[in-house]
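Agenda item 2: coenzyme A complex prediction
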Amino acid sequence: MVRSLEIGDVDAVLRIQKVSPELAQWIRRDYERVANGEMAGWVAEDGDTVLGFVVARKLADEMEILNLAVAPDARRHHLGSELLGVAFEWGRTNQIRKAFLEVRASNFAAIAFYERHNFKSVGRRQRYYVAPIEDAIILAASP
Ligand SMILES: CC(C)(COP(=O)(O)OP(=O)(O)OC[C@H]1O[C@@H](n2cnc3c(N)ncnc32)[C@H](O)[C@@H]1OP(=O)(O)O)[C@@H](O)C(=O)NCCC(=O)NCCS
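Presented output:
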């Protein structure tokens, strides 16, 4: 089940982030801001266990996917797709025309995942990431 990210989910989200080095590593306060409604966020859970999350924000008529991850043991069971689907539904409800995101150039799993969901490469930011330094690929899709 996918539902809105709440304050009680922040510990579980931080645990998934910790074992997902591909992610932008946010601090607790960032996810508390999501839970408080400053950004949009959802979790996927099985029973009481949070297995994945996505965070997005609206910028005029575009949306940015800021972070999306599924716990390593739960990957390839379409939870990521469910999370993206809910974020896209929110986008359509909010008159969003385009969704975009940045991903590390070496993150082939995420690039394959996003391409599966009709994202296309629209640019590259040189040396965008640190530790390790790496280019970002910019991907965009219509929600
Ligand atoms: C990217 C990520 C969220 C995908 O979540 P997921 O729940 O495993 O993805 P799904 O099961 O919904 O995958 C849907 C489709 O995407 C593609 N896909 C997903 N992971 C893939 C992989 N590792 N290699 C190739 N294709 C992949 C496949 O086509 C897959 O369909 P299939 O399993 O029926 O073949 C997950 O791999 C993850 O958490 N990665 C680490 C964090 C990250 O990189 N986040 C993105 C940066 S913001």
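Discussion summary: The CA atoms of residues 14 and 31 lie 8 Å apart.
Owner for follow-up: CH.
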